[in-house]
Amino acid sequence: MSGQKITVNNGVVDVPNEPIIPYIEGDGIGADIWKSASRVIEAAVEQAYNGEKKIHWKEVLAGEKAHNKTGEWLPEETLDTIREYIIAIKGPLTTPIGGGFRSLNVALRQELDLYSCVRPVRWFEGVPSPVKRPQDTDMVIFRENSEDIYAGIEFQKGTDEVKKLIDFLQNEMGATKIRFPETSGIGIKPVSEEGTHRLVRAAIQYAIDEGRKSVTIVHKGNIMKFTEGAFKTWAYELAEKEFGDKVFTWAEYDRIVEEKGKDTANEAQSEAEAEGKIIIKDSIADIFLQQILTRPKEFDVVATMNLNGDYVSDALAAQVGGIGIAPGANINYDTGHAIFEATHGTAPKYAGQDKVNPSSLLLSGVLMLRHLGWGEAADKIENSMDKTIASKTVTYDFARLMDGATEVKCSEFGDALIKNL
Ligand SMILES: NC(=O)C1=CN([C@@H]2O[C@H](COP(=O)(O)OP(=O)(O)OC[C@H]3O[C@@H](n4cnc5c(N)ncnc54)[C@H](OP(=O)(O)O)[C@@H]3O)[C@@H](O)[C@H]2O)C=CC1
Ligand SMILES: O=C(O)CCC(=O)C(=O)O
Ligand SMILES: [Mg+2]
């Protein structure tokens, strides 16, 4: 096929004018949103660079399509191709609840060690929202993507493994104070210092590069001290050790309070803010979910573990119009590998109806274009999105919440975006 490979040299991605980019169409609504979003991306690139740049899509299989064609859900060839071509984009893949296979989405992230799940959440003018001032929500979530309860270390009730584990916990680990009925299933939650460091490093570096004001570490460390609590401690340590005078941490604030009192600590923080230092702070996950609704302006970049990040990203998406418009990227900043990905699922009840909003996948494509350094094409799509939504030409999810909207199909929304590029 024509086009060239993207390469990585010393961690820097080298993008030819005609890169080959593998894509996974996805299950359920995947085919509809891929068709619509990929056409808009192609048109934006064509217009931005007058034909000098062009993406050559290369389909790779995963999910139901892969299973039907090859008998496998996630063929090795798909992983090898993404490894080889460095950057890929995907639609959603089905994960049955309970039995069956584990998440292919999670497997892709783990196999390629895409440790940062980056999900920017910001409002587009005119998008219907359940909050009064959706424009106050402008955050970028860095969700740790390779550890936590998502590691998939779980044991089903009644199995020999779970019996062994309970016996071990009760008889060797001193877990005698809680009840372990025989019907217990058990999941393990690994959180490491290395895993925390690389994620938090990426989040702080992003905040510095993008001129953001703060990084909030979201955790439930009051309850899970050696996993979520340790995440917080390691995050503060990393911030102070590696980013020195570019940051001011709440750990530092606490030390100043202890030594010199609260007034001096407040002064130190104000001074740091005035100097443009990134404030590194933390919030416990439950109150954080309240505060993103009541005081969204106080939060900017967010660094958190896998499960918290999953919840927080859908909750925040709701504030700016829902998961139909919330994009995402899974990135390994060390190897350069990245998979850009819609944050929503396969919405099976809408599959094949050409109905849903393609914006989540499309805006993931915009993140991809920026990652490639093709900002002009990315800007074109975002500007067109502003214009199209302002004209109230929208898919069903927005139309049902907007007065006087024209509801269009998934493909027609793509047509309207192309017209407004
Ligand atoms: N990264 C991935 O690939 C992900 C995969 N999944 C998987 O997807 C499957 C279905 O999961 P489910 O929990 O139903 O979540 P989904 O995200 O698929 O759908 C939930 C609801 O969200 C709304 N929605 C989703 N996508 C869109 C869109 N593009 N435009 C407008 N509205 C949208 C719809 O709301 P309404 O009904 O109000 O119209 C839909 O019913 C599961 O197998 C799950 O594991 C889930 C999340 C991420
Ligand atoms: O893989 C899945 O089924 C769910 C993943 C998910 O919810 C997410 O990536 O936000
Ligand atoms: Mg999710």
UniProtKB/TrEMBL annotation:
Site (Critical for catalysis) residue list: Y150, K220
EC number per UniProt: 1.1.1.42
Modified residue annotations for N6-acetyllysine: K132
Residues that bind D-threo-isocitrate: S103, N105, R109, R119, R143
Cofactors required: Mg(2+); Mn(2+)
Residue numbers carrying Phosphoserine: S103
Binding site for Mg(2+): D310
Stored SUPFAM superfamilies: Isocitrate/Isopropylmalate dehydrogenase-like
Listed InterPro entries: IsoCit/isopropylmalate_DH_CS, Isocitrate_DH_NADP_dimer_prok, IsoPropMal-DH-like_dom
N6-succinyllysine modifications at: K90, K232
SMART domains registered for this protein in UniProt: Iso_dh
Reactions performed catalytically: D-threo-isocitrate + NADP(+) = 2-oxoglutarate + CO2 + NADPH
One GO MF term: NAD binding
Top-rank lineage group of the source organism: Bacteria
Binding site residues for NADP(+): T94, H344, G345, T346, A347, P348, K349, Y350, N357, Y396, R400
EC class name: oxidoreductase
Chain ranges of the Isopropylmalate dehydrogenase-like domain: 20-417
Manner of cofactor binding, per the entry note: Binds 1 Mg(2+) or Mn(2+) ion per subunit.
Xref: Pfam families: Iso_dh
Oligomeric form and interacting partners: Homodimer.
Family affiliation: Belongs to the isocitrate and isopropylmalate dehydrogenases family.
Protein name in the entry: Isocitrate dehydrogenase [NADP]
